[in-house]
Write a structure and sequence with these properties.
Blueprint: E1 2-5, E2 16-19, E3 29-39, H1 41-48, E4 66-74, E5 86-90, E6 100-104, E7 108-110, H2 117-120, H3 124-136, E8 144-147, H4 155-164, E9 168-172, H5 178-183, E10 187-189, H6 195-203, E11 210-213, H7 219-226, E12 234-236, H8 241-246, H9 253-256, H10 259-270, E13 278-283, H11 287-296, E14 302-306
Parallel strand pairs: 8-9, 8-11, 9-10, 11-12, 13-14
Antiparallel strand pairs: 1-2, 3-4, 3-6, 3-14, 4-5, 5-7
Helix pairs in contact: 3-4
Length: about 300
Amino acid sequence: MKAVRFDDYGALDVLEVREVPVPEPGPGQVLVQVRAAGINPGEAKIREGALRERWPATFPSGQGSDFAGVVEKLGPGVTTAEPGDRVIGWVDTRSSHAEYVVAEAANLARKPSGLPWEIAGAIPVAGFTAWAMVRAVGVRPGDTVVVTGAAGGVGAIAVQLARRNGATVIGLAGPSNHDWLRRHGVLPAAYGEGAAERIRAAAQGARIDAFLDTYGGDYVELALGDLKVSPERVDTIVRFDAAAKYGVKVEGNAAGASAATLAELAGLAAAKELEIPLAQTFPLEEVRVAYAQLAKGHLRGKIVLIP
């Protein structure tokens, strides 16, 4: 089978698509033929070595967590799936950017029949992260919530989930994404210098109750200082240093990952109650091109590989 591999930390040129043996599922596992696999910014940072202290790689390393596909083979003891099942899932073994992946049976949800493969493959990491962030700050009816990177893979889902919880949502994003945010009931504000003033203008005098940071930079300081948001109602998935420094939360993918949450998000997407925006799809062989596009930023939604 074809699978993405890299032998050392580095830039895009360390990524290769190689022929490797099809893996065998062990106890409690299933082999899935991958139809679509999302890519995530954290995977690029791991490959570059930026997160080696937190999440070191073992070489040769694969890549990828998200996937959607068809169950091919069951490992011993699996009773919750059958060959031919169409599923969505995730792995913690950095191995979904491939034609086949071995996953824990407990990490699968059924793919709703009307949900396109590429949308299904984009849900897990971004969906879990957005779900966990909204939960972490306790978004409730009447709140005014700010989301940075509001049209990105995580942000685009987070703004919709916060709206579903009854909050007024202000989304920081580039002007090209403002109409998309408005269509989802989100008040857009441009990022960059003067963002605090634009946020306050969008809030029309309302207090900012919670802040979700998917972008990084100095937005945590803006939330705590300029906007006077309480630390326990600030969550960031970029500024891990801010937890110890300020007492803010850093809950993301790991805090949200569960088959039940995945089934919930997939059901909402299939019912068109939650849009999972797709920035672009690429063949597996063009994995370098896909990550180069991701590195440019300012995307609306997720990039997905199609094996």
